[in-house]
Specification:
Order of helices and strands: HEEEEEEEEHE
Strand order of the largest sheet: 1-2-3-4-5-7-8-9
CATH class of the largest domain: Mainly Beta
Distance between the termini: 59 Å
Number of domains: 2
Strand content: over 45%
Number of strands: 9
Helix content: 10-25%
Shape: elongated
């Protein structure tokens, strides 16, 4: 086995060297094209466009839990998103974005004991660091794809529980903030399009955020000591299972050049 690995090592090194050269060559082409375009603008006396954009964005989140490794344990719940962003244009094809927002996510209808159903709403402070890869095919609009890390500080969590009791259901609201860990790290991928409105830029995008950390703080198992009565509490429904977040988001933003 080790001999085979040694035989493959030179090929792997050659492949890595080839891809490094290809990346450097491609980057060089982009940089050269960018430099030529800017030189033409300088010669013509045309004013350079601003590389910095500051703006606000809002949107709708549709979230669910990946509970015990399953996407089927809950349903998506609606939430709002509101924040600001700061973009820096590196080239015509690449743009960096720093986002800060208040974001809601969670899940609907997690099944508990005695047929109880529990819906959770998280209120988070979110920070994203995204890289946009754009295709400036027209001056009016620019398609883009993007990716980057996302960080959530979980401020508060509420649970709306519904317990069937014959002909009626008892609905109760709980503060379950202490049942979840405070920090979530995730990855965002998405696509969208930017529109030039002359006085501002309109941003429209759809994105998916996948949480990487288990948020179930199963140290706080309140409800276990209440016997059969505790079976209907949201704490008991969470149990000791792993819990990660999955979120679709549709957003619109308005940015102004500085």
């Amino acid at each position: 086995m080790r001999k085979d690995l040694k035989k493959l090592s030179p090929n792997a090194q050659k492949s890595g060297f080839f891809f490094a050269l290809l990346f450097a060559f491609t980057l060089g082409l982009f940089s050269n094209a960018q430099a030529q375009e800017e030189a033409k603008k300088e010669d013509s006396g045309e004013k350079k466009p601003s590389r910095i954009t500051l703006g606000v964005r809002t949107g709708l989140n549709l979230s669910e839990f990946i509970f015990a490794g399953s996407y089927a344990a809950t349903e998506r719940i609606e939430g709002a998103q509101l924040g600001a962003f700061f973009n820096i244009k590196a080239t015509n094809w690449v743009e960096l974005s720093v986002e800060a927002a208040w974001a809601q996510n969670g899940a609907r209808n997690l099944t508990g004991g005695s047929g109880s159903l529990h819906s959770f709403t998280f209120n988070n402070f979110q920070g994203n660091l995204l890289t946009y890869f754009k295709l400036p095919i027209l001056s009016v609009y620019e398609p883009k794809i993007f990716i980057g890390p996302s960080f959530d500080y979980i401020g508060s969590v509420t649970a709306n529980s519904e317990v069937p009791t014959g002909t009626t259901n008892i609905k109760t609201r709980y503060d379950v903030s202490n049942r979840f860990k405070k920090l979530d790290v995730g990855v965002i991928v998405g696509l969208g399009v930017d529109f030039d409105l002359k006085f501002a830029r309109l941003f429209i995008d759809a994105r998916y955020r996948h949480g990487l950390l288990d948020l179930n703080d199963n140290v706080n198992t309140k409800g276990n000591e209440l016997g059969t009565t505790g079976a209907t509490l949201p704490y008991r429904a969470l149990g000791n299972s792993s819990l990660r977040t999955s979120q679709l988001s549709f957003q619109v933003g308005l940015g102004f050049s500085l």
